[in-house]
Amino acid sequence: MPEQFTPKAELDQRIHRLQQMMAQHAIDGALVIEPTNMFYFAGTMQSGVLYVPAEGEPVLMVRRSIERARLESTLSCIVPFASYRTFLAILDEHGLASPQAPGLEFSIPMEMYGRIEKYVKGPFKDIQGLVARCRAIKSNYEANLIREAGRRQVDNFARIPSLYRGNMTELELGAAIEQQMLLLGHHGMANIQSWGSRLHIGYVSAGENGYYPHMFDGPGGCKGICPAVPELGSQRPIQKNEPVLIDLAFGYQGYHVDMTRIFCRGQLAREALDAQKRCLEIQQWIVELLKPGATPSQIYASMIDKLQKLNWTEHFMGYGDRAVKFLGHGVGLSVDEFPAIAKGFDEPLEAGMVLAVEPKKVLPGVGVVGIENTWLVRAEGDAVKLTAADDDIRELPL
Amino acid sequence: MPEQFTPKAELDQRIHRLQQMMAQHAIDGALVIEPTNMFYFAGTMQSGVLYVPAEGEPVLMVRRSIERARLESTLSCIVPFASYRTFLAILDEHGLASPQAPGLEFSIPMEMYGRIEKYVKGPFKDIQGLVARCRAIKSNYEANLIREAGRRQVDNFARIPSLYRGNMTELELGAAIEQQMLLLGHHGMANIQSWGSRLHIGYVSAGENGYYPHMFDGPGGCKGICPAVPELGSQRPIQKNEPVLIDLAFGYQGYHVDMTRIFCRGQLAREALDAQKRCLEIQQWIVELLKPGATPSQIYASMIDKLQKLNWTEHFMGYGDRAVKFLGHGVGLSVDEFPAIAKGFDEPLEAGMVLAVEPKKVLPGVGVVGIENTWLVRAEGDAVKLTAADDDIRELPL
Lengths: 398, 398
Fold this sequence. Notes:
CATH architecture of the largest domain in chain A: Alpha-Beta Complex
Largest sheet of chain A: 6 strands, mixed
Radius of gyration of chain A: 22 Å
Oligomer: homodimer
Structural class of chain A: alpha+beta
CATH class of the largest domain in chain A: Alpha Beta
Largest interface: A-B, 70 and 70 residues
CATH superfamily of the largest domain in chain A: Creatinase/methionine aminopeptidase superfamily
């Protein structure tokens, strides 16, 4: 795993795109603070703030650690930062005017906002949507990292059956998978942006735990380790002939793919096999629509319409009224990126977007079947499967 | 690992303490949203809001998942929640008036605050400090869980040498430790409250990586996996005769201990052994002061004074001006709890507080030595070591 510092040309291009969007939204200076967003624009993740002016070079102000920022970031202007008290003075030193219409990520905590607004005059505009739209379209550099994450994830899934030992619990298998992922270059834990959500690496959920209720906004369920940590897997042993839902985010150098396969010790019942087949069909229908110009909201509406006609919406994407209202989501530096394949996402898909598509079906009393792969939208037409493994149900040793 | 649901009497006591503090601060209703805080008062961690009135039973309003909240929480009033639009109506249904002086965690994102203030009239007071002070004092129930985390952590550290294989990298050893921790009942990842900080399980840092600059506010350093994920360990092989700093948070049923030991393949130089001895002395000096009534700020000041007289402050608690300005920190449902042993923490220690004490010293060009244990402050006097293992430097196989 070579040391990867984000090239200057790459950062310049990202910052330029943000500046174009800022101009469209009449924002003349943006404060980027959220660590993942800072990493996207600066190539380093520090405590501090990246100031992006309407035009010209950004200024990376770093509280901790300035040394590390200078090691990792290819930006040219990196300066120490003690508090927002000195923010405008630093801008002035760099020939930058105080922003008149500043932008800020409204994902920052209220208390931090309180510290900022004392010294930087608002009103502020929320730049989360702009940053999400920048991040949604992956460059070749980024697509290659996600491709690599995909290759390693395929390898990871292929090795899961060999990790299984008799009478393993969900958690034991999950722990073995986690170690394997780290050794395969996984970067440690899945990054989620939604406030208050955590995912660890994903989860192993056997049988009815596949739809165990969970605060996480996803079609699958997870009982997890304990009420304080509803993640990864529970002490429930994996039984014969039940579907085992393994949904894992693999991250490489910051970039993720999301992938789910159904595993089984033995043989699934006819009902589960039929539902699995239907999920694969739905995946195929969706993926045929993943082209520049298509809108996620239309893809979603057309699929739900189709499934209603087939009378197949009950417990689709979750148990009863716990079902989630999306069929997929953007993936990149976090696993919950823009856009979702859902109502309200009316902007057309663009080449370079990366989306996880995850049709899943709950069979009450049995478990969950379905599929998830991560796809790259291309100008040339057909989306490319970045988790390029077959979609079959995988065997665990009996 | 038995299923642990927080008993009703425990929740009642916690809520009662919060209500007492609310009365002192003229807050007549508190909205608790942050998942760890919700878990503390409700015994479940869901998307939604726990409303604690000035007096009487709280109302847990749950967006997702109401089923899971009802399985896990022993609170009596748990209701579905769609949006803050209905918040006051729900209070009214339960005979509760709209709060006139409401409290809110100012750690919530600005955008969430925007959704709340539309329907709940402010001005709001920040309740983070109140909640932190509630959480700082552990009940017997909590102390027993932390004790159990300590026992398992001791076991974990004892087994680390047997995980080491020739030429392992920091990351390989870290991955093996992480799997072992999960199998020993560790709950998956360390919980940190500071916004933007992540820790995974802690880190393995060999030689000079022990003071590699890092955004995290701690005395040790960590190069980590990559710039996007500066955590756990790097691809650097562990060399002979260098200090290997292993700083890990073990979590059991939501509760953590924090512990550090120095490992070595071979023999440390005299200079490192002397510095290690001094760190153990400093630990002893601090721990003798961990009694109800002592103030953390005074402990900090007296230690720094003592070390200045000994001319021993250079690179103590971090390299050069990267040194952190604390000697320890509260531990519980997160690893960065109130209080810190630092300037500004002038409220006296109380029985039931749990603190990690971590004197560490950087030896430039060599690495980091030192110690970290987690201690329970007791009414009876001496603090109890919850990470009850010897403090010696541990051998890794050559």
